[in-house]
Amino acid sequence: MRRIGQVRWELAIVVWAVALGMFFPILWMLLCSFKTEIAAVATPPALFFHPTLENYHAVLERADYLAFARNSVLVSLGSTLLALALAIPAAYSMAFFPTRRTRDILLWMLSTRMLPAVGVLVPIYLLWRDLGLLDTVFGLILIDSISVLPIVVWMLFSFFREVPAVILEASRMDGATQIEELVHVLLPLCTPGIAATALLSIILCWNEAFWSLNLTTVKAATLTTFTASFSSPEGLFWAKLSAASTLSIAPILIFGWMSQRQMVRGLSFGAVK
Amino acid sequence: MTGEVASKPTRHLHRPLLAPSVGALFLWMAVPLAMTLWFSAEHYNLLRPGKTAFAGWENYRDLLTHRALWIAMGNTLFLVGLVLAITLIFGTLFSLLLNQDFPGRNVCRLLIIAPFFVMPTVSALIWKNMLMNPVFGLFAWITRSLGFGTIEFFSRMPMLSIVLIVGWEWTPFAVLILLPALHSLNPEQIEAARLDGGGPIALFRYIQLPHLLRPMAVVAMIEMIFFLSLFAEIYVATGGGPGLASTNLAYLIFRDALLGFDVGRASAGGVIAIILANIVCFFLMRVVGRNLEDLR
User: Fold this and answer.
1) Residue A212 falls inside a structural domain
2) The domain that contains A138 carries what CATH number?
3) B205: domain range?
4) pLDDT 10s digits, B80-92
């Protein structure tokens, strides 16, 4: 038996090595973003260099980067708000007024996630073309909000179910209508859960690549499309590419770190509480 | 705590609250699905608009008798199987490590889960350019310094390179789910096993692993859904090549539809992808359905 309080250094070294190894590609990109273009492709790789901010200046001065970033913000926030607006009433009704069919409805909602995006690429592309939604922010918001909707409903449902029904009944005794009960009692009680759900939805929409690559070209293209456009030029602009990528992933990485513990519910569909 | 069944008079509001979500998802499912089925039985090319004709099974016959579909199916299954094994094995291993007590474990946890939050196009770019590039990449420099020459990742082993990238992105997902599951294990149970003289291996084999099986099944199923239509990484890193070497089902359909303009054939491919996903879906529903037993 180990003495309590004894520090297990050998274990610490192993896990730190694993952790740094997993994080290394991100760290390497971060380092590259502060190098000059020449230092970025130098062999042997430059570990010590004069850090420069010129790549960030260059990226931010390009108006198109900001346009892509704006689209990413609009799409992830818009889709999240739309998904929440649809999901909150649904999760509320299923959590507090379950019927015989509630379980089937939840499973059916989950099953819509199983429809592989490629399976419906052709009709969605043609529909969006005919409706004039191709390459529009609104078109992308519609599709992203529908694709996160099942996860959002599930996650909210799991948070709502933890609220004792007695609390809601007490407010009903006081004569509150269902809408009042939802807005004034349930939502304030579940603010942390709703925030975690919103963060997960923002992360998923921000990183969504399939639909933005296939349904947008220029006007509504998001950062995923923008970064994908760098796949062809070989070794020319690594430092600027690193700066643009770092800016694109930084906010989401921070959101992810903030909400990692709560988002497990949404990602595991109730298998882990 | 479960919401108890409400008093009768409030129940009539149930439907209007549920209807928007159910309606939106139903439209999302039914309309494109019907259209995919319809197009898959038509000769329909976007370059010849207005010249559609009934094709019956011809699109399917074309696809099924062409080797491209079988290569893509093989690649899809190879990718799903291998990445699943990698993420589950390493995810469990990392979770067991992070479940110990040592200085800085919270920082380590954040570093290990970070790759999951990186957008797939960026992950593919980092690996493709900065790490695996045969001329300027870090790996090439390391192998050259050690005297092994250069590994041509994307021309020699494109599928394995994709597996490596996707495995790196999704191992954190397994950790994200499995680590809290380990935490939720009753400490008294572990203490009892220890008092009985069980070593760490026995502890894992008889207590932790059985406890992890259900979360592992959920991880596997969710990952399968994503890996079956994996697209961005292939699009950025290899473009499906060289030749068809790294083309999966998703990329094949994309090629037929948006590069080849053949709506009929792409739709037939879509139907095949849907059937494949439904086989997976069937098992997922059974696993997840058990989490809802108390609603019955």
Assistant:
1) yes
2) 1.10.3720.10
3) 63-289
4) 999 999 999 999 9
Split at pLDDT 50, 70, 90, the class of B5 is very low
A30 Cβ partners below 8 Å, 6+ apart? A242, A246
**Contacting residues of B for A73, CB less than 8 Å apart:** none
Residues 93-122 of B with CB under 8 A from A: 94, 97-98, 100-105, 107-122
| Min Cα–Cα distance to chain A from B82, Å | 19
Asked whether residue A38 is domain-assigned, the answer is: no
CB contact under 8 A, A273 and B184: yes
Asked if residue B51 belongs to a domain, the reply is no
Strand partners, B42: B54
Residue A101 belongs to some domain of the structure: yes
Half-sphere exposure of residue A28: CA atoms within 13 angstroms, side-chain side: 25
Given a contact cutoff of 8 angstroms between Cβ atoms, the answer to whether A103 and B296 are in contact is yes
What's the structural domain count of chain A? Answer: 1
Q: Answer whether residue B194 is part of any domain.
A: yes
First to last CA, chain B: 15
User: What Å distances lie between residue A177 and A110, A188, B180, CA to CA?
Assistant: 30, 16, 38
Q: Contact, B44 vs A126, CB < 8 A? A: no
Q: Is the N-terminal amide bond of A98 cis, ω within 30° of 0?
A: no
Q: Nearest CB to B291: which of A160, A261, A271?
A: A271
Please state, in angstroms and rounded to a whole number, the distance separating the CA atoms of residues A268 and A158: 11
Alpha helix (H) residue ranges in A33-136: 37-40, 54-61, 63-96, 102-112, 121-130
Full residue range of the structural domain in which residue A162 is found: 59-268
User: pLDDT digits over B132-141, tens only?
Assistant: 887 778 888 8
Residue pair A209/A224 in contact (Cβ under 8 Å)? The answer is yes
Adjacent-strand bridge partners of B43: B53
Disruptive mutation site among B1, B5, B21 for chain A (greatest number of A CBs within 10 Å): B21
Q: Tell me the whole-structure pTM to 2 decimals.
A: 0.85
Q: Name chain B contacts of A107, Cβ cutoff 8 Å.
A: 285, 288-289, 292
B200: CATH: 1.10.3720.10
Residues 6 or more apart whose Cβ sits within 8 Å of residue B171: A22, B86, B87, B90, B91, B94, B115
What is the predicted ipTM? 0.85
CB contact under 8 A, B138 and A28: yes
Number of domains into which chain B is organized:
1
User: Which 3-state string (H, E, C) describes B56-96?
Assistant: CCHHHHHHHHCHHHHHHHHHHHHHHHHHHHHHHHHHHHHHH
Distance between CA atoms of B170 and B116, rounded to whole angstroms?
Answer: 6
CA end-to-end span of chain A, whole Å? Answer: 31
Tally Cβ neighbours within 10 Å of residue B193.
17
A269 with B218: Cβ contact below 8 A: yes
pLDDT tens-digit readout, A16-39: 999 999 999 999 999 888 888 777
Within a domain: B97: yes
Does B76 map to a domain? yes
Domain contains A135: yes
A44 CA to chain B: closest CA distance, Å? 7
